[in-house]
Amino acid sequence: MGTVVTSSGRISAALYPGDDFGTPPFSREELVLLDDTLSEASEVASVRFSVYIGDLGSDVVAGAREILAQAPEPAHGALIAVSPNSKDVAVVSGALVAGRVNDRVAELGVSAALASFKQGNLIDGLVAALRVMATAVDRP
Question: Residue 19 — very low, low, confident or very high, per pLDDT cuts 50/70/90?
Fold first, then answer.
């Protein structure tokens, strides 16, 4: 109740007066940067990019695939999934873009993110990964 998936795939949520979301782990500016980068990367590459931050379970790739399956248009999507506690990163892509968002593209994205991740800058790393992957993806 109180949430909707917008036409772009983002989730918009409302709260009752007096309720709050708690203390978010990222600043408003970081979230806006990530949102803008997701939109730009998706448009440039014609791939629906998504980001997930959280536990991926013992099989990181399987966990990332399960999350991608829940995204809007998963067959046209690519997910960068980060499990901060286990320090795992997985990139998975949907069936209709798998040939374009391939292992080479995923490796480039993860490599671009690692320096920022090692410094504890999760958003900066995700932004770098998205930008590199968007430019490395073969156009349809």
Answer: low
CA angle 87, 91, 97 (to 5 degrees): 175
Could you give the CA distance from residue 126 to residue 116 in angstroms, rounded to a whole number?
Answer: 9
According to DSSP, residue 5 is labeled: E
> What's the mean per-residue pLDDT of the chain?
89
Indicate the SS3 state at residue 110.
helix
For residues 83 and 10, the model is more confident at 83
Which residue, among 100, 103, 105, has the nearest Cα to 76 in the 3D structure?
100
Q: Which residues of 51-60 are buried (b: 16+ CB within 10 A; e: fewer)?
A: bbbeebeeeb
Helix (H, G, I), strand (E, B) or coil at 34: helix
pLDDT band for 38, please (50, 70, 90 cuts).
Answer: very high
CA distance 71 to 76: 10
